[in-house]
C-alpha cells in the first residue's frame, strides 16, 4: 500500500540550520536582526492568530531573559527562534498543537512542533543525570551541557508504534482506553522497548492490548508527537483471524472490529468518535477506509 504523506505534524518549511548551532557569532548577529522572529512558548502553547490561523511572532528585543532555541532559517534567510516566555493574558490567543496543528501552514506547523518539543525537553532536563549539577543550554538549544563533568545531553525522543490492524474480512481493529468516554476509539499504540525493533513491537503491543495475533506488518510513515516527546511510527498489520479481541480492562476498556460501513454510520449518528485530524491515528484509519472521513460529531477532548 502507498505510504502516508503530508502528515499534519510532519510538515516543515524551514531549514533547521544545523551548521549554525555552534556558530556563536552568527547566532548573536541573527538575534540582533530586526527581521528575526521569536515564538514565545509556555507549557506547550503559543500565541496564534485566528484569521487566518498563523503563529504570532515577536522580535528578539521584546524577549526578556529566559532560554532561547534556534528553530531554523527559511529560504529568505529569516531566522526563527523559540523562547520560554509569558504569553498574552487572553486565553483565546493561546493554542496548542492539538487545537491548531491541522490549521497552520506547513512552515508554522513544523516550527511549532519543533518549539514545543524543545521546550518540553529543556523544562524537564535541568540537571545532569551523571552528577546532578545544573545544566546549561548548548548548541543553540539542540543540547544541554554540564559545566561540572563536561557531559553533553541531547533531546529525548521516545519511539512508539501505532498500528491499524486489519482482519481477513477487511475490518479494522480499534480500541478505547479506560480513561476515554464511551464511543471514543483509536488505533492501538505502544512504546518500543529497549533492544526491540519496531516490527516486533507491533506484534507484541497488539497481542498485549487486544489478544489479537498479527501475522504481517507494513510501515507507512512517521509523525512527531511532542506530548511530551514521542515519535509515532505508523504501521498497517494483518491479523491471523477476526476472533473477538480480549482486553485487560486496565490499559484498554474495549476493543472491537469495525467494518467500513460501521465507521461511517457511527460517525454520522455520534456513537463513534475518531481521533482528530492532527493525529497519525486518524490518517491510519482514513488510509484503511480509502478516503477522508467526516469530522467526528463528538468531542475528542
According to CATH, the fold-level topology of the largest domain is Nucleoside Triphosphate Pyrophosphohydrolase
Number of structural units classed as domains: 3
Sheet-strand content, in percent, reads: 25-35%
| Total strand segments | 15
CATH architecture of the largest domain: Alpha-Beta Complex
Helix content: 10-25%
Oligomer: single chain
- Category by helix and strand content: alpha+beta
By CATH reckoning, the class of the largest domain would read: Alpha Beta
Ends distance: 32 Å
Biggest beta-sheet profile: 6 strands, mixed
Task: Write a concise keyword list for the protein shown above.
301 residues; alpha+beta; Nucleoside Triphosphate Pyrophosphohydrolase; 3 domains; 3-stranded mixed beta sheet; 6 helices; 28% strand; globular
What do these coordinates show?
The protein is globular, with a radius of gyration of 21 Å. With 301 residues, the protein is an alpha+beta fold. β7 and β8 form a beta hairpin. The strands form four sheets. Strands 10, 11, 12, 13, 14 and 15 form a six-stranded mixed β-sheet that branches. A three-stranded mixed β-sheet has the order 1-5-4, sandwiched between helices. The chain starts with 23 loop residues before the first helix and ends in a 12-residue tail after the last helix. It contains six helices and 15 strands. It has three domains: 117 residues, Nucleoside Triphosphate Pyrophosphohydrolase (Alpha-Beta Complex), CATH 3.90.79; 29 residues, no CATH class; 132 residues, Nucleoside Triphosphate Pyrophosphohydrolase (Alpha-Beta Complex).
Amino acid at each position: 500500500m502507498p505510504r502516508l504523506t503530508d502528515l499534519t505534524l510532519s510538515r516543515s518549511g524551514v531549514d533547521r540550520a544545523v551548521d549554525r548551532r555552534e556558530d556563536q557569532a552568527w547566532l548573536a548577529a541573527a538575534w540582533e536582526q530586526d527581521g528575526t522572529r521569536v515564538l514565545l512558548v509556555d507549557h506547550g502553547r503559543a500565541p496564534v492568530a485566528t484569521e487566518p490561523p498563523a503563529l504570532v511572532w515577536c522580535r528578539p528585543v521584546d524577549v526578556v531573559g529566559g532560554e532561547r532555541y534556534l528553530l531554523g532559517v527559511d529560504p529568505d534567510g529569516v531566522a526563527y527562534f523559540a523562547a520560554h516566555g509569558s504569553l498574552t493574558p487572553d486565553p483565546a490567543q493561546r493554542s496548542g498543537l492539538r487545537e491548531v496543528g491541522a490549521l497552520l501552514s506547513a512552515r508554522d506547523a513544523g516550527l511549532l512542533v519543533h518549539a514545543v518539543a524543545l521546550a518540553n525537553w529543556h523544562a524537564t532536563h535541568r540537571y545532569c543525570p551523571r552528577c546532578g549539577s545544573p545544566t546549561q543550554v548548548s548548541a543553540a538549544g539542540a543540547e544541554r551541557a554540564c559545566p561540572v563533568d563536561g557531559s553533553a545531553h541531547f533531546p529525548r525522543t521516545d519511539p512508539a508504534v501505532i498500528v491499524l490492524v486489519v482482519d481477513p474480512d477487511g475490518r479494522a481493529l480499534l480500541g478505547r482506553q479506560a480513561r476515554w468516554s464511551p464511543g471514543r476509539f483509536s488505533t492501538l499504540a505502544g512504546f518500543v522497548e529497549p533492544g526491540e525493533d519496531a516490527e516486533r513491537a507491533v506484534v507484541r503491543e497488539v497481542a498485549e492490548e487486544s489478544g489479537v495475533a498479527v501475522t504481517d506488518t507494513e510501515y507507512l510513515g512517521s509523525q512527531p508527537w511532542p506530548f511530551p516527546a514521542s515519535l509515532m511510527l505508523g504501521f498497517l498489520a494483518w491479523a491471523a483471524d477476526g476472533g473477538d479481541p480480549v482486553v485487560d480492562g486496565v490499559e484498554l476498556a474495549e476493543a472491537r472490529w469495525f467494518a467500513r460501513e460501521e465507521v461511517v454510520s457511527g460517525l454520522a449518528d455520534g456513537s463513534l468518535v475518531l481521533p482528530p485530524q492532527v493525529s497519525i491515528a486518524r490518517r491510519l484509519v482514513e488510509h484503511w477506509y480509502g478516503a477522508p472521513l467526516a469530522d467526528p460529531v463528538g468531542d475528542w477532548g
